[in-house]
Amino acid sequence: MSTISRDEVARVAALARIDLRPDEVTRLAGELDVIVESVARVSEVATADVPATSHPLPLTNVFRDDVPEPALPVQDVLAGAPQQENGRFAVPQILGEE
Amino acid sequence: MTNDITRLSASDLASALRSKTITSVEATQAHLDRIAAVDGDLHAFLHVSSDEALATAAEVDAKRAGGEELHPLAGVPIAVKDVVVTKGLPTTAGSKILERWIPPYDATLVERIKAAGLPILGKTNMDEFAMGSSTEHSAFGNTKNPWDLDRIPGGSGGGSAAAVAGFEAPLAIGTDTGGSIRQPGAVTGTVGVKPTYGGVSRYGLIAMASSLDQAGPVTRTVLDAALLHELIGGHDPHDSTSINEPVPGVVAAARQGAKGDLKGLRVGVVKELSGEGYQAGVSARFDESLEQLRALGAEVVEVSCPSFAYALDAYYLIMPAEASSNLAKFDGMRFGLRVEPADGPVTAERVMGATRGAGFGDEVKRRVILGTYALSAGYYDAYYGSAQKVRTLIQRDFAAAFERADVLVSPTAPTTAFKFGEKLDDPLAMYLNDVATIPANLAGVPGMSLPNGLSDDGLPVGFQILAPAKADDRLYRVGAALEAALESSWGGPILNKAPELKTTELAR
């Protein structure tokens, strides 16, 4: 059905925000090609008259009473962060220069 | 003496604790000693929490001495798969990206374990983010199969299964997205149950595929699994997919089943889950177990589930798609690893890419990229959309099959435990291990694996039982009946046939 090129792997890896080494791109191109070719068989039986199922059991939305509940202590949550400052997560520059 | 304590089932150990012939501190210390003696070889644990476990045990002993009413499993030690968050105990999900992370909260199932007074021995090894069938994808090394140290213990929950099979813990927690409780159970000669989707809260499980993940018991006996299932199961307001109904009476069902009467029960053999691709010894044990079920009064019929042929394919689209979304939270900002790019501007986006490139292992990268691909523009309908339709077809197959049978059965896995490295370079061959377990996850129905003998290679084989959604009690009735019949034919539990593990002399 498809052939997944190295360029395609690099494009999707960028969408997934995973930096790959050149050798990883090459290996994944081969592997994903085999996997995708195999799993594409699903389209053989997925005809237009079959509805899609997203969830194993029928669900209705769940609500709770609109009352505040205690949240985790801020310092406990920040303790696991790579960097924190003044009771907040410290993160790198969000926007690039361009 | 300590050696004998670790051989007890959780149920027998609980009785001994109740009658005060053993204290929880003694029982917990015996298991910690066993871990110290054999885990150098097995590597079932990523972290052993001796101090916390002994403190809980002492607390339970004090309460018992004071005549307090306790949970039936109070004082019985337990191991927890490292994908389940534990307040104050490291939780890595087998990934470098979470190395040294200490969660600030407990999963609901851990809260229930703590409230009932079960000492937590530690966190068990697993394939990274539960992605794998051999535990070879753990970032922290392989877990060995206690039956043969050159072979895989199954996966992703190989650590929990090996801990229980190696008598390091009487109870463990597993999670099952496509077979990660049941397949390790099969290859280690232990019992594993994936409850009905929503039967056990997913709050505090590090999610792989949210519509498939389910936590459940890993034990050596069917009754022990039922006891643990009742403890961790039930409604949780923190999980919007949690079933708001009482847990089915699984303990009562296990006790009833152990009496061995299955008269009137219809057992459906799934035609598509046997024959070609199944090892001869696996098929032979399966046929013998069917004979046992007939001898217990069950009627065995054949059922056909033609769409199961596409289950593996649908699974390998839905699971990576959901995983690619769930794992987006590992961005190097709020928890875990942060890696800055080697050169160029240090922006959040580039830090995220560098962090994930360094922190994720091969299989995680493979699945996240596959999932991103399946969801990307131009492919969504053909791949993800079609897979969701297959899910409907599989549910219809189950519905039709359960019209004709009360439970469905198959071998749990096509083969016994394979050797390390055998399937590592062939992802499709690795994925095939879960061919018989995946349909249950796609449909949300409960499934159990219990040991039903040894194959021609002397390694354990698993027997899978599937029941309709919310009828988990049927698994336990049938499982306990088969277990009792098999154990009487073997003259004891299957793990009595496992080789003794080499023990390291203790310094204590």
TrEMBL record, chain A:
It is an enzyme of class 6 (ligase). InterPro entries: Asp/Glu-ADT_sf_sub_c (IPR036113), GatC (IPR003837). It catalyses: L-aspartyl-tRNA(Asn) + L-glutamine + ATP + H2O = L-asparaginyl-tRNA(Asn) + L-glutamate + ADP + phosphate + 2 H(+); L-glutamyl-tRNA(Gln) + L-glutamine + ATP + H2O = L-glutaminyl-tRNA(Gln) + L-glutamate + ADP + phosphate + H(+). It comes from the Bacteria. Pfam families: GatC. Keywords: ATP-binding, Ligase, Nucleotide-binding, Protein biosynthesis. Gene3D superfamilies: Glu-tRNAGln amidotransferase C subunit, N-terminal domain. The keyword Amino-acid biosynthesis does not apply. GO terms for biological process: glutaminyl-tRNAGln biosynthesis via transamidation; regulation of translational fidelity; translation. Coiled coil: none annotated. GO terms for molecular function: ATP binding; glutaminyl-tRNA synthase (glutamine-hydrolyzing) activity. Its EC number is 6.3.5.-. Belongs to the GatC family. HAMAP family: GatC. Allows the formation of correctly charged Asn-tRNA(Asn) or Gln-tRNA(Gln) through the transamidation of misacylated Asp-tRNA(Asn) or Glu-tRNA(Gln) in organisms which lack either or both of asparaginyl-tRNA or glutaminyl-tRNA synthetases. The reaction takes place in the presence of glutamine and ATP through an activated phospho-Asp-tRNA(Asn) or phospho-Glu-tRNA(Gln). Heterotrimer of A, B and C subunits. This is Aspartyl/glutamyl-tRNA(Asn/Gln) amidotransferase subunit C.
